[in-house]
Amino acid sequence: MTYMVYIDQYGQLGIMGQGARETILTPALCRAARGLLDWTQTDLADRAAVSRSTIRDYEGRHHDIHRATEAQLRLAFEEGGVKFVEIQGAGTGVYLPTA
To answer: pLDDT above 70 covers what percent of the chain?
Structure first.
């Protein structure tokens, strides 16, 4: 399973393993990924097996999430079809492949 795809300064795609680089699911990326999938906070909570209040508080920047919770959220997004990309010099982004 791919943990993350990145795009280098030359536009080349690469695959990153889990240990290759620490990635962070920011509140903004969480909202963006939900938006791509048209999921509510409740939809994500159900799919990631976390409480809706955890998602609400995290997206509202009331508190950080544990690493295990981040992994659960990312897995839910990835299973939903969202791809996480690291664009060198720009940071992490999300997209939903069309095909």
So the answer is: 75
The distance of Cα 95 from the centroid of its chain, to the nearest Å, equals 10
The answer to whether the predicted template modeling score (pTM) of the entire model surpasses 0.85 is no
Q: For residue 90, give the DSSP letter.
A: T
pLDDT of 67? 87
pLDDT, tens digit (0-9, with 9 covering 90-100), for 5-17: 556 556 666 655 5
Task: Pull the structure tokens for residue 85.
Answer: 């990309």
Spell out the long-range contacts of 32-36 with Cβ–Cβ below 8 A and sequence spacing 24 or more: 32/94, 33/77, 33/82, 33/94, 36/82, 36/94, 36/95, 36/96
Q: Find how far residue 56's CA is from the centre of its chain.
A: 15
| AA identity, residue 12 | Q
pLDDT in the model for residue 88:
82
SS (H, E, C) 18-39: CCCCCCCCCHHHHHHHHHHHCC
**Alpha-carbon Rg for the chain in angstroms:** 13
